[in-house]
Specification:
The protein is an alpha/beta fold and 417 residues long. It has two domains: 251 residues, Type I PLP-dependent aspartate aminotransferase-like (Major domain) (Aspartate Aminotransferase, domain 2); 101 residues, Aspartate Aminotransferase, domain 1 (Alpha-Beta Complex). The chain is built from 13 helices and 13 strands. The protein has a seven-stranded mixed beta sheet with strand order 1-7-6-5-4-2-3, sandwiched between helices. A four-stranded antiparallel beta sheet has the order 10-11-13-12. It is globular, with a radius of gyration of 22 Å.
Protein backbone atom coordinates (compact mmCIF):
# COMPACT_ATOMS: atom_id res chain seq x y z
CA UNK A 1 0.00 0.00 0.00
CA UNK A 2 1.47 3.32 -1.07
CA UNK A 3 0.24 6.88 -0.75
CA UNK A 4 -1.12 8.24 -4.02
CA UNK A 5 1.37 10.38 -5.93
CA UNK A 6 -1.07 13.19 -6.61
CA UNK A 7 -3.38 14.84 -4.12
CA UNK A 8 -7.16 14.46 -4.32
CA UNK A 9 -9.99 16.99 -4.09
CA UNK A 10 -11.35 17.75 -0.63
CA UNK A 11 -14.88 16.48 -1.34
CA UNK A 12 -13.58 13.25 -2.83
CA UNK A 13 -11.43 12.57 0.23
CA UNK A 14 -14.31 13.25 2.60
CA UNK A 15 -16.63 11.05 0.56
CA UNK A 16 -14.22 8.16 1.06
CA UNK A 17 -14.08 8.79 4.80
CA UNK A 18 -17.86 8.82 5.03
CA UNK A 19 -17.95 5.51 3.17
CA UNK A 20 -15.49 4.00 5.65
CA UNK A 21 -17.45 5.35 8.60
CA UNK A 22 -20.65 3.76 7.37
CA UNK A 23 -19.38 0.40 8.61
CA UNK A 24 -18.90 1.63 12.19
CA UNK A 25 -21.31 0.97 15.04
CA UNK A 26 -24.32 3.34 14.82
CA UNK A 27 -23.84 5.10 18.15
CA UNK A 28 -25.98 8.06 17.06
CA UNK A 29 -29.00 5.73 17.05
CA UNK A 30 -28.75 5.11 20.80
CA UNK A 31 -28.10 1.40 20.32
CA UNK A 32 -24.46 1.20 21.39
CA UNK A 33 -23.67 0.32 25.03
CA UNK A 34 -19.94 1.08 24.80
CA UNK A 35 -17.18 3.22 23.31
CA UNK A 36 -19.16 6.43 22.66
CA UNK A 37 -21.50 8.22 25.06
CA UNK A 38 -23.98 10.71 23.64
CA UNK A 39 -24.89 13.81 25.63
CA UNK A 40 -27.30 15.18 23.02
CA UNK A 41 -27.34 17.71 20.15
CA UNK A 42 -26.24 20.78 22.10
CA UNK A 43 -23.32 18.85 23.59
CA UNK A 44 -22.30 17.80 20.08
CA UNK A 45 -22.47 21.39 18.89
CA UNK A 46 -20.42 22.96 21.65
CA UNK A 47 -17.79 20.20 21.45
CA UNK A 48 -17.47 20.40 17.67
CA UNK A 49 -17.22 24.19 17.64
CA UNK A 50 -14.63 24.17 20.42
CA UNK A 51 -12.67 21.45 18.60
CA UNK A 52 -12.56 23.53 15.43
CA UNK A 53 -11.06 26.45 17.39
CA UNK A 54 -8.22 24.26 18.68
CA UNK A 55 -7.64 21.94 15.74
CA UNK A 56 -3.96 22.89 15.36
CA UNK A 57 -2.91 24.04 18.85
CA UNK A 58 -0.30 22.05 20.77
CA UNK A 59 -0.34 21.69 24.57
CA UNK A 60 3.31 20.59 24.64
CA UNK A 61 4.23 24.22 25.35
CA UNK A 62 1.68 26.17 27.33
CA UNK A 63 3.95 29.23 27.22
CA UNK A 64 3.18 29.35 23.52
CA UNK A 65 -0.47 28.41 24.11
CA UNK A 66 -1.36 29.77 27.55
CA UNK A 67 -5.05 29.21 26.84
CA UNK A 68 -4.44 25.46 26.95
CA UNK A 69 -2.68 25.84 30.28
CA UNK A 70 -5.73 27.67 31.59
CA UNK A 71 -8.07 25.06 30.11
CA UNK A 72 -6.17 22.21 31.76
CA UNK A 73 -6.02 24.00 35.11
CA UNK A 74 -9.73 24.77 35.09
CA UNK A 75 -10.83 21.29 34.00
CA UNK A 76 -8.62 19.71 36.66
CA UNK A 77 -9.92 22.14 39.27
CA UNK A 78 -13.56 21.46 38.44
CA UNK A 79 -12.96 17.72 38.56
CA UNK A 80 -11.08 17.99 41.84
CA UNK A 81 -13.99 19.88 43.39
CA UNK A 82 -16.39 17.11 42.32
CA UNK A 83 -14.13 14.52 43.95
CA UNK A 84 -13.59 16.51 47.15
CA UNK A 85 -9.94 17.27 46.52
CA UNK A 86 -10.12 20.39 48.67
CA UNK A 87 -7.41 23.03 48.44
CA UNK A 88 -4.57 20.55 48.03
CA UNK A 89 -5.41 18.22 45.13
CA UNK A 90 -3.62 18.70 41.81
CA UNK A 91 -3.41 16.86 38.53
CA UNK A 92 -3.27 16.92 34.77
CA UNK A 93 -5.41 16.08 31.78
CA UNK A 94 -4.53 12.95 29.81
CA UNK A 95 -5.73 11.25 26.64
CA UNK A 96 -7.90 8.70 28.45
CA UNK A 97 -8.25 6.27 31.30
CA UNK A 98 -5.32 4.11 30.30
CA UNK A 99 -2.93 7.06 30.29
CA UNK A 100 -4.32 8.31 33.60
CA UNK A 101 -3.72 4.88 35.11
CA UNK A 102 -0.20 4.71 33.64
CA UNK A 103 0.59 8.08 35.20
CA UNK A 104 -0.76 7.04 38.59
CA UNK A 105 1.20 3.78 38.60
CA UNK A 106 4.41 5.53 37.55
CA UNK A 107 3.94 8.14 40.29
CA UNK A 108 3.39 5.41 42.88
CA UNK A 109 6.56 3.59 41.81
CA UNK A 110 8.63 6.78 41.83
CA UNK A 111 7.24 7.87 45.17
CA UNK A 112 8.08 4.51 46.76
CA UNK A 113 11.60 4.58 45.36
CA UNK A 114 12.14 8.14 46.58
CA UNK A 115 10.54 7.87 50.02
CA UNK A 116 11.10 4.21 50.90
CA UNK A 117 13.98 3.08 48.70
CA UNK A 118 11.89 0.41 46.97
CA UNK A 119 13.79 -1.12 44.01
CA UNK A 120 11.65 -4.26 43.49
CA UNK A 121 8.19 -2.66 43.34
CA UNK A 122 4.92 -4.59 43.59
CA UNK A 123 1.29 -3.57 43.28
CA UNK A 124 -1.77 -5.33 44.63
CA UNK A 125 -5.06 -5.30 42.79
CA UNK A 126 -8.23 -7.36 42.47
CA UNK A 127 -8.69 -9.41 39.32
CA UNK A 128 -11.50 -7.02 38.37
CA UNK A 129 -9.12 -4.04 38.06
CA UNK A 130 -8.68 -2.67 34.56
CA UNK A 131 -6.16 -4.32 32.25
CA UNK A 132 -4.35 -0.97 32.01
CA UNK A 133 -2.75 -1.71 35.40
CA UNK A 134 -1.11 -4.80 33.89
CA UNK A 135 0.03 -2.71 30.94
CA UNK A 136 1.58 -0.23 33.37
CA UNK A 137 3.25 -3.05 35.28
CA UNK A 138 4.85 -4.34 32.10
CA UNK A 139 6.01 -0.89 31.05
CA UNK A 140 7.39 0.15 34.44
CA UNK A 141 8.70 -3.24 35.62
CA UNK A 142 6.39 -3.71 38.57
CA UNK A 143 5.31 -7.12 39.86
CA UNK A 144 1.54 -7.54 39.91
CA UNK A 145 -0.03 -9.44 42.79
CA UNK A 146 -3.64 -10.27 41.91
CA UNK A 147 -6.35 -11.04 44.46
CA UNK A 148 -9.67 -12.77 43.79
CA UNK A 149 -13.05 -11.10 44.15
CA UNK A 150 -16.07 -12.13 46.20
CA UNK A 151 -19.10 -13.79 44.66
CA UNK A 152 -20.62 -10.33 44.24
CA UNK A 153 -17.49 -9.33 42.26
CA UNK A 154 -16.28 -6.74 44.80
CA UNK A 155 -12.63 -6.87 45.81
CA UNK A 156 -11.71 -9.39 48.51
CA UNK A 157 -9.85 -7.13 50.92
CA UNK A 158 -8.59 -9.99 53.10
CA UNK A 159 -7.08 -11.65 50.04
CA UNK A 160 -5.50 -8.35 49.05
CA UNK A 161 -4.09 -7.89 52.56
CA UNK A 162 -2.41 -11.29 52.33
CA UNK A 163 -0.54 -10.09 49.22
CA UNK A 164 0.81 -6.86 50.72
CA UNK A 165 4.56 -6.86 51.38
CA UNK A 166 7.21 -4.30 52.27
CA UNK A 167 7.70 -3.85 48.49
CA UNK A 168 4.10 -2.84 47.83
CA UNK A 169 4.05 0.55 46.12
CA UNK A 170 0.40 0.69 45.05
CA UNK A 171 -2.95 -0.77 46.08
CA UNK A 172 -5.88 -0.44 43.68
CA UNK A 173 -9.66 -0.22 43.92
CA UNK A 174 -12.36 0.79 41.44
CA UNK A 175 -15.42 2.99 41.66
CA UNK A 176 -16.99 1.21 39.95
CA UNK A 177 -15.00 -1.56 38.35
CA UNK A 178 -15.74 -2.02 34.65
CA UNK A 179 -16.69 -5.70 34.20
CA UNK A 180 -19.73 -5.88 36.51
CA UNK A 181 -20.14 -2.26 37.58
CA UNK A 182 -19.77 -2.74 41.35
CA UNK A 183 -17.87 -0.41 43.67
CA UNK A 184 -14.96 -1.88 45.62
CA UNK A 185 -14.67 -1.20 49.40
CA UNK A 186 -12.36 1.76 48.89
CA UNK A 187 -11.99 2.65 52.57
CA UNK A 188 -10.68 -0.80 53.45
CA UNK A 189 -8.42 -0.91 50.41
CA UNK A 190 -6.94 2.52 51.19
CA UNK A 191 -6.28 1.42 54.77
CA UNK A 192 -4.12 -1.42 53.44
CA UNK A 193 -1.98 1.10 51.58
CA UNK A 194 -1.63 3.34 54.62
CA UNK A 195 -0.31 0.45 56.72
CA UNK A 196 2.80 0.11 54.53
CA UNK A 197 3.13 3.70 53.32
CA UNK A 198 2.05 2.80 49.79
CA UNK A 199 -0.09 4.78 47.37
CA UNK A 200 -3.75 3.96 46.77
CA UNK A 201 -5.31 4.57 43.37
CA UNK A 202 -9.06 4.67 42.77
CA UNK A 203 -9.95 3.93 39.18
CA UNK A 204 -13.05 6.07 38.67
CA UNK A 205 -12.66 6.31 34.92
CA UNK A 206 -16.21 5.00 34.58
CA UNK A 207 -17.66 6.59 37.71
CA UNK A 208 -15.93 9.92 38.12
CA UNK A 209 -18.62 11.79 36.21
CA UNK A 210 -21.55 9.73 37.49
CA UNK A 211 -21.11 9.06 41.20
CA UNK A 212 -20.80 12.72 42.30
CA UNK A 213 -24.02 13.66 40.51
CA UNK A 214 -25.83 10.52 41.64
CA UNK A 215 -24.96 11.48 45.21
CA UNK A 216 -26.21 15.03 44.63
CA UNK A 217 -29.45 13.51 43.35
CA UNK A 218 -29.91 11.58 46.60
CA UNK A 219 -28.45 8.16 45.75
CA UNK A 220 -26.47 6.29 48.38
CA UNK A 221 -22.88 6.13 47.19
CA UNK A 222 -20.33 4.38 49.41
CA UNK A 223 -17.22 6.46 50.23
CA UNK A 224 -14.72 6.31 47.38
CA UNK A 225 -13.09 9.70 46.64
CA UNK A 226 -10.62 11.98 48.44
CA UNK A 227 -12.89 11.96 51.49
CA UNK A 228 -11.43 8.51 52.13
CA UNK A 229 -8.14 8.73 54.07
CA UNK A 230 -5.27 7.07 52.25
CA UNK A 231 -6.55 7.60 48.69
CA UNK A 232 -3.65 9.26 46.89
CA UNK A 233 -4.73 9.28 43.22
CA UNK A 234 -7.98 9.09 41.25
CA UNK A 235 -8.57 8.75 37.51
CA UNK A 236 -11.79 10.11 35.98
CA UNK A 237 -12.68 10.12 32.27
CA UNK A 238 -14.49 13.15 30.90
CA UNK A 239 -14.91 11.35 27.58
CA UNK A 240 -17.11 8.69 29.17
CA UNK A 241 -20.10 9.90 31.15
CA UNK A 242 -18.66 13.41 31.15
CA UNK A 243 -19.91 13.35 27.53
CA UNK A 244 -16.82 14.98 26.01
CA UNK A 245 -15.29 13.59 22.80
CA UNK A 246 -12.30 11.24 22.98
CA UNK A 247 -9.74 11.55 24.46
CA UNK A 248 -10.06 13.49 27.68
CA UNK A 249 -9.36 12.19 31.16
CA UNK A 250 -8.04 13.61 34.41
CA UNK A 251 -5.59 12.07 36.86
CA UNK A 252 -5.70 13.71 40.29
CA UNK A 253 -3.23 13.50 43.16
CA UNK A 254 -4.14 14.36 46.73
CA UNK A 255 -1.35 16.98 46.84
CA UNK A 256 1.04 18.77 44.53
CA UNK A 257 3.86 17.08 46.42
CA UNK A 258 2.51 13.68 45.32
CA UNK A 259 1.89 14.95 41.78
CA UNK A 260 5.57 15.77 41.26
CA UNK A 261 6.32 12.03 41.10
CA UNK A 262 4.36 11.90 37.83
CA UNK A 263 6.14 14.64 35.88
CA UNK A 264 9.25 14.28 33.74
CA UNK A 265 11.86 17.00 33.32
CA UNK A 266 15.14 16.88 31.42
CA UNK A 267 17.74 19.59 30.85
CA UNK A 268 20.50 17.56 29.22
CA UNK A 269 19.98 18.06 25.48
CA UNK A 270 20.68 20.85 23.01
CA UNK A 271 17.03 21.86 22.76
CA UNK A 272 16.89 23.30 26.27
CA UNK A 273 14.54 22.34 29.09
CA UNK A 274 12.07 19.56 28.24
CA UNK A 275 9.20 18.79 30.59
CA UNK A 276 6.00 16.76 30.23
CA UNK A 277 3.27 16.06 32.77
CA UNK A 278 2.14 12.74 31.30
CA UNK A 279 3.04 10.15 28.66
CA UNK A 280 2.69 12.40 25.64
CA UNK A 281 4.95 15.06 24.23
CA UNK A 282 2.90 17.00 21.74
CA UNK A 283 -0.73 17.08 22.84
CA UNK A 284 -3.67 18.10 20.73
CA UNK A 285 -5.68 20.99 22.06
CA UNK A 286 -8.85 19.53 20.53
CA UNK A 287 -9.93 17.12 23.30
CA UNK A 288 -8.86 19.56 26.01
CA UNK A 289 -10.91 22.43 24.58
CA UNK A 290 -13.87 20.19 23.78
CA UNK A 291 -13.92 18.80 27.33
CA UNK A 292 -13.71 22.31 28.77
CA UNK A 293 -16.59 23.44 26.55
CA UNK A 294 -18.81 20.45 27.36
CA UNK A 295 -18.28 20.84 31.10
CA UNK A 296 -19.08 24.55 30.91
CA UNK A 297 -22.10 23.94 28.72
CA UNK A 298 -23.62 21.29 30.99
CA UNK A 299 -22.67 22.59 34.41
CA UNK A 300 -23.68 20.80 37.59
CA UNK A 301 -27.39 20.90 36.78
CA UNK A 302 -26.88 19.49 33.29
CA UNK A 303 -24.83 16.61 34.62
CA UNK A 304 -27.35 15.91 37.36
CA UNK A 305 -30.11 15.70 34.77
CA UNK A 306 -28.14 13.42 32.43
CA UNK A 307 -27.15 11.22 35.37
CA UNK A 308 -30.75 10.89 36.56
CA UNK A 309 -31.86 9.89 33.06
CA UNK A 310 -29.00 7.39 32.80
CA UNK A 311 -29.61 5.71 36.14
CA UNK A 312 -33.36 5.43 35.57
CA UNK A 313 -32.66 3.70 32.25
CA UNK A 314 -30.07 1.40 33.83
CA UNK A 315 -32.56 0.38 36.52
CA UNK A 316 -35.16 -0.31 33.83
CA UNK A 317 -32.64 -2.41 31.92
CA UNK A 318 -31.72 -4.48 34.97
CA UNK A 319 -35.37 -5.08 35.82
CA UNK A 320 -36.14 -6.11 32.24
CA UNK A 321 -33.24 -8.55 32.13
CA UNK A 322 -34.14 -10.11 35.48
CA UNK A 323 -37.69 -10.64 34.28
CA UNK A 324 -36.50 -12.97 31.50
CA UNK A 325 -36.12 -16.62 32.42
CA UNK A 326 -32.59 -17.76 31.71
CA UNK A 327 -30.83 -14.43 32.25
CA UNK A 328 -29.19 -12.85 35.30
CA UNK A 329 -27.22 -9.75 36.25
CA UNK A 330 -23.73 -10.43 37.58
CA UNK A 331 -23.19 -8.79 40.96
CA UNK A 332 -25.30 -6.04 42.47
CA UNK A 333 -24.54 -3.11 40.20
CA UNK A 334 -26.41 0.02 41.27
CA UNK A 335 -25.32 2.57 38.73
CA UNK A 336 -24.77 2.71 34.96
CA UNK A 337 -22.72 -0.43 34.26
CA UNK A 338 -24.01 -3.98 34.17
CA UNK A 339 -23.12 -7.43 32.87
CA UNK A 340 -25.79 -9.84 31.63
CA UNK A 341 -25.12 -13.58 31.75
CA UNK A 342 -26.94 -16.88 31.39
CA UNK A 343 -28.51 -18.17 34.57
CA UNK A 344 -27.09 -21.66 35.14
CA UNK A 345 -29.99 -22.56 37.46
CA UNK A 346 -32.73 -21.64 35.00
CA UNK A 347 -34.72 -24.18 33.04
CA UNK A 348 -34.05 -22.24 29.87
CA UNK A 349 -30.37 -22.19 28.88
CA UNK A 350 -29.31 -19.26 26.75
CA UNK A 351 -25.96 -19.19 24.88
CA UNK A 352 -25.00 -15.67 25.90
CA UNK A 353 -22.68 -14.84 23.01
CA UNK A 354 -25.24 -16.18 20.52
CA UNK A 355 -27.66 -13.79 22.21
CA UNK A 356 -25.14 -11.04 21.62
CA UNK A 357 -25.00 -11.97 17.95
CA UNK A 358 -28.81 -11.91 17.72
CA UNK A 359 -28.89 -8.48 19.34
CA UNK A 360 -26.15 -7.27 16.98
CA UNK A 361 -28.27 -8.31 14.00
CA UNK A 362 -30.92 -6.00 15.42
CA UNK A 363 -28.39 -3.16 15.63
CA UNK A 364 -27.42 -3.40 19.33
CA UNK A 365 -23.75 -3.36 20.34
CA UNK A 366 -22.57 -4.91 23.63
CA UNK A 367 -19.11 -5.55 24.98
CA UNK A 368 -18.39 -9.28 25.38
CA UNK A 369 -16.60 -10.50 28.48
CA UNK A 370 -15.24 -13.61 30.15
CA UNK A 371 -14.92 -15.20 32.64
CA UNK A 372 -17.80 -15.66 33.23
CA UNK A 373 -19.26 -15.24 29.74
CA UNK A 374 -21.38 -12.09 29.72
CA UNK A 375 -22.61 -9.16 27.67
CA UNK A 376 -21.53 -5.80 29.05
CA UNK A 377 -23.52 -2.58 28.90
CA UNK A 378 -22.61 0.97 29.78
CA UNK A 379 -25.93 2.78 29.93
CA UNK A 380 -25.78 6.49 29.14
CA UNK A 381 -28.17 9.33 28.36
CA UNK A 382 -27.77 8.48 24.69
CA UNK A 383 -29.15 4.95 25.14
CA UNK A 384 -31.88 5.84 27.63
CA UNK A 385 -34.51 6.83 25.06
CA UNK A 386 -34.16 3.45 23.34
CA UNK A 387 -34.60 1.27 26.44
CA UNK A 388 -38.17 0.15 25.72
CA UNK A 389 -37.15 -0.83 22.20
CA UNK A 390 -34.07 -2.62 23.55
CA UNK A 391 -36.06 -4.75 25.99
CA UNK A 392 -38.46 -5.72 23.22
CA UNK A 393 -35.58 -6.78 21.00
CA UNK A 394 -33.92 -8.59 23.91
CA UNK A 395 -37.01 -10.72 24.47
CA UNK A 396 -37.19 -11.53 20.75
CA UNK A 397 -33.48 -12.38 20.62
CA UNK A 398 -33.79 -14.69 23.65
CA UNK A 399 -36.63 -16.53 21.92
CA UNK A 400 -34.51 -16.81 18.77
CA UNK A 401 -31.43 -18.37 20.40
CA UNK A 402 -32.96 -20.45 23.20
CA UNK A 403 -31.75 -24.01 22.87
CA UNK A 404 -29.42 -23.11 20.01
CA UNK A 405 -26.27 -25.15 19.53
CA UNK A 406 -24.50 -22.02 18.27
CA UNK A 407 -22.35 -20.64 21.08
CA UNK A 408 -21.86 -17.29 19.33
CA UNK A 409 -18.85 -15.03 18.94
CA UNK A 410 -16.83 -14.05 22.00
CA UNK A 411 -15.27 -10.88 20.57
CA UNK A 412 -12.54 -8.86 22.27
CA UNK A 413 -11.84 -5.55 24.03
CA UNK A 414 -8.77 -5.01 21.91
CA UNK A 415 -6.85 -3.37 19.11
CA UNK A 416 -3.97 -5.35 17.63
CA UNK A 417 -3.75 -4.14 14.02
Amino acid sequence: MELNAQGRPVEEVLEDLNAKRSRDVPWRDGKVFAMVFDGGPSVHEVAERAAALYLHENALNTHAFPSLGEIQSEVVGWTSALLHGGDTAAGFMTSGGTESILCAVLAARTRAETERGITAPEMVLPISAHAAFHKAAEMFKIEVRVAPVHEDFTADVDAMAALITSNTVLVVGSAPQYPQGVIDPIGEIAALAVEVGASCHVDACMGGFVLPFAEMNGAHVPPWDFRVPGVTTISADIHKLGYAPKGASVVLHRTKELRRHQTFTFDGWLGGMYATPNMQGSRSGVPMAAAWAVMQHLGIDGYRSLTATTLEAAAQMRAGIRAIDGLRILGDSQFHLLAMAADPEANLQIPIFALGDALARRGWFHGRQYPPDSLHATVSAGTAAMMDHYLEDLAAAVHEVSGSADSGTAGAYATIE
